Amino acid sequence: MRLWGGRFTGESDPTVAAFTRSLEIDRLLAADDIAGSIAHVHGLVRAGLVSQADADSIVAGLEALRSEIESGTFPWDPALEDVHLNVEAALTARIGPVAGRLHTGRSRNDQVALDLRLWLRRTSREVDAAARDLERALVERAERDGEAILPGMTHGQPAQPVLLAHHLLAYVEMLERDRGRFGDAQRRADCCPLGAGALAGAGFALDRETTAAELGFAGVTANSLDAVSDRDFVVDFLSSAALCMVHLSRLAEELVWWSNPAFGWVELLDAHATGSSMMPNKKNPDPCELVRGRAARVQGHLATMLSVLKGLPLAYQRDLQEDKAPLFDAADVLESSLRVMATVIRGLTIHPERMRRAALTGHVTATSVADALVELGLPFRVAHHVVGRLVAEAEGAGVRLDELPDSAFSAALAAEEHDDARRLASRARETEALAAALREAATLEAAIARPRVTGGTAPERVREAIVAARRRLDGEWQAAWDERHAAEEHIEAADPNPHLVVEVSGLAPGRALDLATGAGTNALWLAAHGWHVTAVDFSKVGLEKARHQAGEAGLAVDWVLADLREFDPPRRAYDLVTLVFLHLPIDERRPIYRRAAEAVAPGGTLLVIGHDRSNLSLGVGGPQDPSVLFTPDEIAADLPDLDVVRCEVVPRPTGSGRSALDAVVRAVRPAVGDRTSA
């Protein structure tokens, strides 16, 4: 039975039904559709339109359907044209006619407008997290290899030398603007359309504001006609996505050329490149090329959406069904592109000597020499002409500017019909100091050091920029974790990581150090089982909640607020050290693991548990960042003076009915005089 039937006779034509069906695309909105429906039925209760008993039945049915959707067992029916009708039909089959009350005061027009805003809010957060991680990858690379000097380009030609870190941080700036645009777009979309009905507004006294607050919106839409036909928020997202992809494409383009053997500035990991089916020599930077190509795809999605909207009268028109395919694909392309670029950046091998060799060509220090002449009293235009002559002289002689003889500098100055230039020419003939100073200005180091203005490439300015970027990103990271902990429900002390329970249960209680304790679940369990626990984390909110729960349970735990990258525990002081999933790239985790290992006392145990890389193929927990996943071997290789007694991947049940894979590493420090593995 069609849920919109009644005035129709007969069945829909199969060709028309197939043509108008959107289920294959809009089923991605299922979770949002159910969330909106639950909030709506709460509003119907407040309005006296549905009894509490009926509402409880409807909500229980919707929750059951949500579990089926999450587990992949929901029976999608292609005969029902979209996600809304599928959910309502399944609810009716589950709880009976009372399900028919759910659509009171609601149209699919305001329903889909709500679903799309909810979906976009979730997706915008995921995109922001991916963009932030790419920023972190760029900053990490700038910290590690940023002192390399390369020729900055204008017009595709060598211009001035810059530090690699300065170049990479330019993309951090682009990504920050991108994130700002997504944030702006989300703020404009932060109003709830539910209650707008088909176009004129619901015919019942629904409290739209309370429903909006329940769904996490800042307010409600002000005009029902606009509410059901507005897709500006889709255009906002697509516009932001298109520009972000342009930035990624620019970065990808540079990596394509830099990895070309003619440049040889960088090299991609073999795992991040592909070969040729015909040419055995090829190593192709395919991820970068595909990012470059997919940027055009996202730009096309923006053009599509603008074209869909341009001729639509108020209010809802079926054309708007075409908003989802470009939106969903653009979001998927953007997030995957951000994550693959972060992966590529982290895996690059930098060849600073080849960058420097390139920077020694093209006379890229010429501006530095001109600036030095200005400091000696020449007007810049005169200095520009003098250095132009020096460049011509160097090119003719096949040497660099800093290799020119004294006579070249005095001759170039003397050729200018300017008193200050001729005065300097006389000085150059009388003393070697002036030519030596200009040759020094022509070195790469001098040219790099000169632009000391804020935002310049001078090393001290670049170091300041790296520190500022790192502090900002670390602050956002901590804020995100604090927000997560603030939103968590009360966590019982008896609900630790199941692997920790298995590994620790056979040990005699003693002193324990719980690193990255988060909400304190493991620390509380250890304390409840006789351990004297020191728990360390950087989240103030998480620690405060854990401290409160410890107090309620009468458990003694020493809580320490600290950044694990800076926390240095006492050596060989703990009988048990636990470290459960650090959301950090492997290079940042490595020193933390080593300090954790050094904290293990003789005869003590180190236990590291975290998400294994295999989760990527399972798709567990949504999109995963490869850089923060690990294999057991990666951890085991970084544990000095410890005997690894367990190093494997094991399944961990999740609430969704699927299994994640955890990497579990257990190591012990032999007791004094005992090198036998446990």
Task: Map the helices and strands.
Layout: H1 14-20, H2 23-26, H3 30-46, H4 52-71, H5 83-95, H6 108-145, E1 149-154, E2 157-163, H7 164-188, E3 191-192, H8 208-214, E4 219-220, H9 224-229, H10 232-258, E5 266-267, H11 286-309, H12 324-347, E6 349-350, H13 352-359, H14 366-375, H15 380-397, H16 406-414, H17 419-430, H18 433-441, H19 444-449, H20 459-487, H21 498-504, E7 511-515, H22 521-528, E8 532-537, H23 540-553, E9 557-561, E10 574-580, H24 586-598, E11 600-611, H25 615-618, H26 632-636, E12 643-653, E13 659-668
Parallel strand pairs: 3-4, 7-8, 7-10, 8-9, 10-11
Antiparallel strand pairs: 1-2, 5-6, 11-13, 12-13
Helix pairs in contact: 3-4, 3-6, 3-8, 4-5, 6-7, 6-12, 6-20, 7-10, 7-20, 10-11, 10-12, 11-12, 14-15, 14-18, 15-16, 16-17, 20-23
What are the salient characteristics of this protein?
Fumarase C, Chain A, domain 2, alpha/beta, two-stranded antiparallel sheet, Fumarase C, Chain B, domain 1, Ribonucleotide Reductase Protein R1, domain 1, 4 domains, 7-stranded mixed β-sheet, 54% helix, 26 helices, 678 residues
